[in-house]
Amino acid sequence: MKNLEQKLNAVGNRAGVSLQKCALLLVISLLLLGAAPVSAQEESTDKAEFGFEAYLWAATIKQNTATGDRVVITFGDIIKNLDMVAMLRGSAQKDRFFGAADVIYLGVSDSQRHKGEFLGQPVTGKLEVGIKSWVLNLVGGYELLDSGVNRFGVTAGARYLDLTLDTTVKIEDRKRKESRGGSVWDAVVGVRGRHNYPDGHYFNYYADVGGGESKLTWQAMANFAYDYKKFTGVIGYRYLKWNLKNDAPAVDDMTIHGPYLGAKWTW
């Protein structure tokens, strides 16, 4: 029985670390900080304009654990174990001032059953692992350049990451449950820009860097967008990284990257 429980605990540790990567997707998500597309109608004006966006980030997560292991989680792994996900963003702009809030909630769970023997009798064990994660980006900024063809601005804000991991080990009528988690706030500064093409397409880019409760966090993204009659379609690529401090539980650093697809409505 002891050997079986040790085996389940070992599997729990590996599964827990893997699901942490899923949750932080991206993941863990977050995020399109000020880098989401601005509608072609968003020229400098006295009238405030607002936007709402829903998007999907098909990310791969790479993580180095505190024990020196390297874990890679693909988008397929995330979808297979997904319970609930929300990736939403709101934005506002008036004249050259703008702001945005971007949030990702991810719920992931998985379970595994194992069978063994104790004193010649069959024994069944079960491992359950669940992850709840929030990623939040808040940003404000000012456009230094708006020529009609090119736009360029500076941004400042904060990035928040919160993760809770629940692990339950059951062996016959014995049960042990453990819950652990943590959160980090980081201040970030960055730039964003846009180039308009004559055919109605436009290219957006964004980058930021910062730190605080983590050693360093940074992200970069670029996308192409097009204004349809009722919404703006967006396709792009994004890279997000955290270097966490030495006392962070289980994780030393984490990288989330991959393509994303979104739709935005403005009024």
What do you see in this structure?
By secondary structure, the chain is mainly beta. It has a single domain, classed as Lipocalin (Beta Barrel). It is built from 2 helices and 12 strands. The protein has helices at 2-26, 75-80, and strands at residues 49-57, 60-65, 70-73, 82-94, 97-118, 121-146, 150-171, 174-196, 201-212, 216-227, 232-243, 251-266. The chain has a 10-stranded antiparallel beta barrel with strand order 1-4-5-6-7-8-9-10-11-12.
Features of the shown structure:
267 residues, mainly beta, Lipocalin, ten-stranded antiparallel beta barrel, 2 helices, disordered N terminus
Could you give the order of the helices and strands?
Answer: HEEEHEEEEEEEEE
Q: What integer value in Å does the Rg equal? A: 22 Å
Residue share in β-strands: over 45%
Global mean pLDDT: 76
Task: List the domain count as a whole number.
Answer: 1
Name the shape in a single word.
elongated
- Enumerate the strands of the largest sheet in spatial order, edge to edge or round the barrel: 1-4-5-6-7-8-9-10-11-12
CATH architecture: Beta Barrel
Question: For the report, how would you describe the main beta sheet?
Answer: 10 strands, antiparallel, barrel
DSSP helix count? Answer: 2
- The portion of residues assigned to helices is 10-25%
CATH names the topology as Lipocalin
